[in-house]
TrEMBL record:
Keywords: Hydrolase. The keyword Hydrolase applies. The keyword Hydrolase applies. This is acylphosphatase. Belongs to the acylphosphatase family. It catalyses: an acyl phosphate + H2O = a carboxylate + phosphate + H(+). Its EC number is 3.6.1.7. It comes from Marinobacter salinisoli. It is an enzyme of class 3 (hydrolase).
Length: 92
């Protein structure tokens, strides 16, 4: 099955609540590659590559996030996977 790349822009109370660190841990458990980073406007960007099933699991987790997060919306864009990532990490 071919890998895909999804870019998720998560809005709500998602900064200062360990959202990126929790996303990194979850992504590594699921087996996707990519990164999570804070955006200047208070949202979090998650770029992930994996199978559609893996990406679906990550998106489902992102909809809830860690306990202190309050996710209001997720914007999603799908691209062709590039294989540019060797793992999943946090970008600053």
């Amino acid at each position: 099955m071919a890998n895909k790349r999804w870019t998720l822009i998560i809005s709500g109370k998602v900064q200062g609540v360990y959202y990126r660190a929790s996303t990194e841990s979850t992504a590594n458990e699921i087996g996707v590659t990519g990164y999570a980073r804070n955006l200047p406007d208070g949202r979090v960007e998650v770029v992930a590559e994996g199978t559609e099933e893996q990406l679906g699991k990550l998106r489902a987790w992102c909809q809830k996030g860690p306990p202190d997060a309050r996710v209001e919306d997720i914007e999603m864009a799908e691209q062709v996977a590039t294989g540019a990532f060797s793992g999943f990490g946090i970008r600053r």
